[in-house]
User: Fold these one by one.
Assistant:
Number 1:
Amino acid sequence: MASTNSKTYETTPARKVAFLGLGVMGFPMAGHLSLAGHDVVVYNRSAAKAQAWCGEFKGASAPTPRQAATGREIVFCCVGNDDDLRSVALGPDGAFAGMKPGSVFVDHTTASADVARELHAKAKELGLQFVDGPVSGGQAGAQNGMLTVMCGGESGAFDAAKPVAMAFARAFTLLGEAGSGQLAKMVNQIAIAGMVQGLSEAIAFGQRAGLDMKQVLEVIGKGAAQSWQMDNRGKTMIDGKFDYGFAVDWMRKDLGLCLDEAKRNGSRLPVTALVDQFYADVQAAGGRRWDTSSLITRLK
């Protein structure tokens, strides 16, 4: 194993890879690939961000997704939404146009299951392989190389990508055919939405009751109420600090995907729909970039 900072990397053969999209998640994810010893070429819509990445990590940048993907064995991607994903994958300057037969495109965008299936089919037509692999763990997970990746696709593509992706992941799991990763991420976001609302109500109730809520969370956090949200966001919610983590705008995008898929498959998501509207209230109050734990601000 090789170790850099707090992340320990498994020793795997160096691969020629590309990373498309250097936002708050993609920038450190691509960095971990470089630190793990892989040959990395990056692309970002804003060239300045790609130049900044090259100033911090060993690797090169390319002016288009196609040029970044040319000659690469695996192309990783993490962009904003379905349309962004299509724009970097498809068309004459898209990654698919530059990828060699048999190479793998791994998409870490939280997007729809439909676009995952669409791009999987298009990749197959071109002799390429496609894995949808949305992530959980937030900005801190990306920076620490400890993301949980939920994958959909064929086992061959998954097996090729996994040893390389473990540079930025703590778990990389195949859950089914194309689109399954995106559906699993929806399950994740549905569960989180309910938990954050429940934690918000609990803290606001306790504060109005005159309790020392930091002390209360210490106590109940050792019992059945314990959760990642309580452990990592409870104290900051009490302090009213929401300037980090997963933004409300992103959560609303994700919950919109959940609600759209629920309409398609006949699921009932009454709590999720309600919490989505509560997040709309937070947006209207100026909290578009606040952390999702800012849901508690509606109750104060």
Note: The mean pLDDT is 96.
Number 2:
Amino acid sequence: MSLNLLTENETNPVVWRGPLIAGTAKQFWTDVIWGDVDYMFIDMPPGTGDVPLTVFQSIPVDGPTIVASPQELIGMIVEKVINMAQMMHTPVFALVENMSCITCPDCGKEIRVFGEGHIDEIAEKHGVQTVARLPIDPKLAAACDAGRIELFDVGWLDGLMKKLASENK
């Protein structure tokens, strides 16, 4: 479910203030017929604003998986989200580093476009597990653009899936 599905034109911006957006997130949980799902991922804007607060307060969240990019400034935001989860008495499930690197198509060398990540240090500091590092991959972007993501088979999220499986035994 996406707010984008409710706009007249997919390129129309959603120019709403926090309470209206937060109410919509809550309504997605209560009014959409989800059926029998094993896992639900709620993609939220970064940070600790109205939407994450509403989700923590009104949806039975087992724990967030925080996705972050390698930049040092992002590390501060990740720690804020971890601290928010602790304040809401919700354990952080895992950390994922997105845009970790790109592989040079000519020589195969991994290039850290955004520098060395700090996610492992943050994970250790807060007793959270880093479960995946996702590279920048033009083939993945092309598969997403073509609506063919399900055909893109790589093991980048295997660590997350293993953790999900072990938590639900």
Note: The chain has six helices and five strands.
Number 3:
Amino acid sequence: MIVTLKLAPGAAVSEAELSQSLGIGRTPIREALQRLARESLVAILPRRGVIVSEINLTKQLKLLEVRREIERLIARSAARRATDEERARLRELAERFEKSAKANDDVTFMRTDREFNTLCSAASHNEFAALAMGLMHSLSRRFWYIHYKQSADMPLTAKLHADIARAIASGDEERAAKASDKLLDVIGKFTRGTTDI
């Protein structure tokens, strides 16, 4: 709900309202909100409630600095350690990325991207890198969702994801790292292009 802006930046939310609208007890809602606070997606303000975090361009750019390094590590590690099954799935995802690029299908791209991120983290077989990326992907995905229609080149982004998937699937660590850097270059340009900085 936060990533897709059903809960907008700056919106106040309450455990009771979320519990009622989602049909989930308050204890799991409270635990989810605490996790979202650790991921910087909400701020819990004592005696004032829970606020969906604002989007801050400067923080987003800092996040991309860290994301670049960890994504490169994950791409290299996955190229080296992925199982045959993971490599086959990456080839399938590369084809889905290509199809979404040709059709300019942002919904398929977003679903494929989420699956791709999860698979790459798993294929790296490095739980610490995977944990760090999980935190960054939620923040990055929300920023993308807010701005992609105004300034992103979704077909190019999908093709760059396909390049990473194929490089990892082939076991080429250097090509995977370079493809990852190329994607982050485009994401950085997109991020800076959302405002006049």
Note: The CA atoms of residues 98 and 159 lie 6 Å apart.
